[in-house]
Amino acid sequence: MAPIREPRVVLVGVPLHRLSRNHQLPCLALLVLISSILAAALQERVLYVPGFRYTGWLAFLTSFTYMALAMVERVVERDLLRRGSFAEYVKLSFLTMGGMYFTNFSLHYLSYSLRVVFKSSKLVPVMLLGVVYLKKRYTVAQYAAVGLLTAGVVVFTLGDAKGRAFFNPVGIAFIVAGSLSDAMAANYEEKVFFSRMGCSASEVVLYSSALGSVWALLAEAFTGELLPALRHSWDHLEAVPLMLFASVFGYIAQSGVLLLIKHFGATAAEIVKSCRKVTTILISFMVYGKPWNGYHVAGTLLFVNSVAVERFNSGASKRFATLLFSMAGLVALRLVFGGVGPSTFSVVIDAGSAGTRVNVFRFDAWNLKLLDINGAAQVFVEEEPGVGDLNSSALALQLSRLLGVAMATVPMGQRQVTPLALRATRALEDLNNQQVDDLLDQMKSHIAAAGFKDAGIQPMGGSEEAIAEWTSVNMLMGCFQPGLRGVHSPVAIVDLGGATVQIAYYLHDRQASEAKRKHLDGYISRIKLPFGSGPVHIYRHSYGGYGLYSAKVRSYKEIEQAGFGLKRHPCLPSGISASLRVQRRAVVAEGAMNRFSCATLIDYILHKELPCMKDGQAAGPPKMGNCSFAGAWMGPGPGPQKVVLASYFYDRMRDVGMVSNYSQTIRAAVFAEQADRACSVTGSGLNTNSAPPKSMLEFPGLSMERLRWLCFDLTFQARLLQALGMAESQELLVVKKIQYHSLNFEASWALGVAIGQLNK
């Protein structure tokens, strides 16, 4: 009797059949795990290339690479005979390409980790089709493993929805369609190609991928995605090798899975793939800095339990499987029913030009979701004046009081791990370098004694402030989401402070690429969104010296210059004098109210510099988009993005009674209308002893100082918005605070800095 010949098990040239039968499965499973993890890590990295959303193009390149590698493998093995029928391969290619295409398309709505987890539920339809289509029978333990696996998918899905505060069922519909296609393909391969026709794994991959790449290319052409995808790959060449290498490792994993199906059955293959997906998720969270929560951990442990039950049923390592099942089950139950995880804090001190503010935020340590602090959104305390106007002893007292607020909020046991960041914006601009260094050293010594984790005590540039402000506002308005888009319905931010004007808005990738080609990328930043949502490009610019207080100083200087032709200030009420501190000295101007001359003076201040100046010289007409003022390029503009106005915009609209809530939508024309009203009402003059009755009735509750400058402030804001291209009919959202999960947070850059510190 002839000896029974062992079947050949070869994976990309590795002869696994030379190993004993007991060692073939673990070695093959290990190769599948390693290659799958590398493929998934590289593929997810592709999603973080700016502007990438071409999942169909990714499916095409993957299928094409599979086809090329399978052809090389068959040539090397000298196995060119096709055993499967062409008609059957057409059917299989529709299933395999459908699984890949739908699964990739779900990334438009789901995070990569949730997509990976949900695909693991494919074991359920695989077993169901195995019973119906292949007439298989499964044990109670195998059904229990599937039940635990399904529970893990559900719990992990809840964790992703909870942690991101975003969940789109459309993505689930696509991932379900992809999982069903994959499940049908796995059973079809086992019954038709491996059991009945005796095809090799490389043959199945070659013909199914060749036909699948044709279907993917046709789908790309039909949807109109092909040319934009090609342009994106041309602009971002780094994406192409990432996709190709991901496909190479994916091919190794796919070939290994087919060998598992052929020699060990579809169910064994799916269990190995489930283990691979759990490991992939773990690495994805660690490599790309994603926040975990209790549901994520519980879902992963349920996956582990499903593997433990399967191993117990196989008769191997029963003690280990029992221990693993018991421990994982207890931890999973504790996390699911134990509520949110522990909290963590972040402290940010804003040393501004007009005052110093301490901000304390509390986050869920699992998912970094913002939490309340004793029922309040955050701890916010402000003291005046700014640190630049304080002597050594006064600075020590101010910092001591503000640090006392932070120490009273953060428990002593958490201070060493709580980051404290101090950022000085324009508070130090009037000091020389030695004075700045001395002041920073003094602040460092006071803060070090408080026992917090040092997150930097340093000046803050205007661009950094604009980015942090944009991050804060978009975070609070729920604009960040998982999936390819990263940011959903972003808003533009214009913040008018005492010394600067900050503007920032989202840019499409093609706009950022065009700006780079036009050598205007100095206005563009590529930033990483909070909590693993991916990177985006934003336009940001800081108009230094054009804040509300700085504009008043500029107006005084212009009046002093004979060339302007004015002896008195046209924006101040007639018959009064007003003084300002300029570089630690007082300057005085006499009022001579004329609202038309006031608007002319402010326009001259805004547009004194030539449009889009560069190095003091006119750069000619804008190369892309428009110029705004102060010689700055405005960029292509926010377009349909909603514009949010913060800081002094809100304060003055509140002064004139146009806003009654923490946030309110008004037309841009309201600023000009209220400027005319303020200039008319206060034009008759104010004095230090009394105010005209009309002013008191029109603007009740305002101080004498506020009434004096009301005409200037509102006129400046109206002309500023006009210079930034805001149409009179445009709807603008004026904010002081933004409601986030029933909590009202300050609309300031401090939250953006706090989030950045926790993400490190």
From TrEMBL:
Gene3D superfamilies: 3.30.420.40, Exopolyphosphatase. Domain 2. Its main location: membrane. GO terms for biological process: nucleoside diphosphate catabolic process; transmembrane transport. It comes from the Eukaryota. It comes from Cladocopium goreaui. It is a multi-pass membrane protein. Keywords: ATP-binding, Hydrolase, Membrane, Nucleotide-binding, Transmembrane, Transmembrane helix, Transport. GO terms for molecular function: ATP binding; nucleoside diphosphate phosphatase activity. This is Adenosine 3'-phospho 5'-phosphosulfate transporter 2. Coiled coil: none annotated. GO terms for cellular component: membrane. Signal peptide: none annotated. Belongs to the GDA1/CD39 NTPase family.
